[in-house]
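Box S1 | Example of a co-folding query
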Amino acid sequence: MHYLAAALLALALPAATQAGQPIAQRFNADPSPHYFTTQHGGKFYLYATDDASNSGKYWDSTSWRLYTSPDMKTWTDTGIPLDVTVFKWARADAKAWAPEAVQRNGRYYFYAPVGGDKIGVAISDRPDGGFADARGTPLVDKARDANAGDEPIDPAVFVDKDGQAYLYFGTRVPKVVKLKADMISLDGPILDVALEDLPPSDPKKKYGEAPFLHERKGTYYFTFSTGWPGQIVYATGSSPLGPFAYRGVVLDYLKISTNHQAIVEHGGKSWLFYHDSLLPGGGSHRRSIAIAPLEYESDGRIRQVPLHAR
Ligand code: FUB
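Box S1 (continued) | Returned holo structure for beta-L-arabinofuranose
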């Protein structure tokens, strides 16, 4: 190939993401990564809070962003899968915060913290758009639901091997509630997630936000951010409902006021997604999602992820 054509092709293709480096040149945060198989094949889908369209002074964007990748190395920005106007009950000043998505029943469910006090759920036949409000009312509402907590945000859904789905959410006190098989209705009361053995010698080791659950070899791993700034830590248990015993650090503090993690496993490999502030002009409201391989010790402990070239 002519060198000019090769150079133009290189410019047109997204660059390969290095561990710990931003996956895109656009500000984004609060990763919700998944591997979805559609009629067009399988690939990774990464839903995110869009920090590029906020004021730069607060997390006040009103739309979410979707990136896709065939290989975890090159990521394509596919634009806005939906925005808060999908939820007609949302206040006019509602913000679009950390999202979650699930593929189930041949459809795509998008869990959306809207305005800091409600979580909505939207549904589509495809993962990259066409989402409509699935209920016409919030799935979780601080004003309506007992024990929804002060700030029902940061939804994360885990579907266990038996098909039971669980919704985790909340700031300062982690919450969990079962979902019905329709994925758009709560099934039973909202419970506090019990966290045990948090080291008393370190008062900063407490739950802040960003709950996330994954399972490996029969152990349930509950990861979360310890607050503002947040270290990403984990606890383990034998049930999705807990209790979970504190085990250690997954990712140390970064120079940023929040962090928010998610873990995706595919083809025998695991990756930690989180956000940092490494793009030019980056900061606490201008974050950037990064990825690092997630590894385990032979006894199931998570190896702390090193802070790559920063
Ligand atoms: O993006 C807004 C908020 O910042 C998220 O809901 C939190 O998890 C934190 O990352």
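Residues 1-13 have pLDDT under 50 and may be disordered. The radius of gyration is 19 Å.
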